[in-house]
Every structure is written in structure tokens, then in C-alpha cells.
Design a protein that fits this description.
single chain; 69 residues; mainly alpha
Length: 69
């Protein structure tokens, strides 16, 4: 019984991370890194402190349209 609860919680967590990585403009596969010990810490720090691809794209579109938000 406990194993099935752990699997469900892990699955929901991975689905959440996959969604977050995808919305930030990264590959959704990076969400799977969050279940690997130590790698998840490095991946989280990269995610937190790097320029997100989606934001770079929006900045590029803004600069091409004359600077309007």
C-alpha cells in the first residue's frame, strides 16, 4: 500500500516538473531530472538562475516590434 502511494506522489511530482520546465521554454524531458538525487539540485539551480528561453524569445519579439511590451 505504501509503495503505491509513493509511486503516485512521485508521478504527480514529475508531471508538475515536466509542466514547469515546458512552460519556461526548456525541454520537458528535463523534468525527469528532478527524480535523480543531486542532479535535481543542479538542474534546479540552472533553472532558477539562467535566462529562460521563453523570456529571451519575448524580449526578442519586443525589440523587433519597437520596444512595446
Amino acid at each position: 500500500m505504501e509503495a503505491s502511494i509513493i509511486i503516485v506522489v512521485a508521478l504527480v511530482t514529475v508531471i508538475g516538473w515536466v509542466s514547469i520546465w515546458g512552460k519556461a521554454g526548456y525541454s520537458k524531458w528535463l523534468g525527469l531530472l528532478m527524480i535523480v538525487p543531486l542532479v535535481n539540485v543542479v538542474a534546479f539551480l540552472v533553472f532558477a538562475f539562467s535566462d529562460w528561453p521563453i523570456l529571451r524569445e519575448k524580449q526578442r519579439e519586443s525589440s523587433m516590434s519597437g520596444g512595446e511590451p
